[in-house]
Amino acid sequence: MDNYVFKMFLGRNWWFLLMGFVSALKQSERESIFGSVALYVLFGEGIILIILYIYWFVKYGRKEK
Q1: Where are the domains of the chain?
Q2: Helix, strand, coil tally for the chain in percent (to 5)
């Protein structure tokens, strides 16, 4: 495997996104700080994607072969 692209990384770590989605739905049962379930899910998933991208970039993205 020459390149370990971010798409492959997400394919193997899809459960992080699932955990974020379930957490957002569970939180939406209580009072949401944004007033909308959709905004809360998008905000939570966005943060998870940013963290995953930073991790992938530090660990795999800067390596050159």
Answers
A1: 6-61
A2: 70, 0, 30
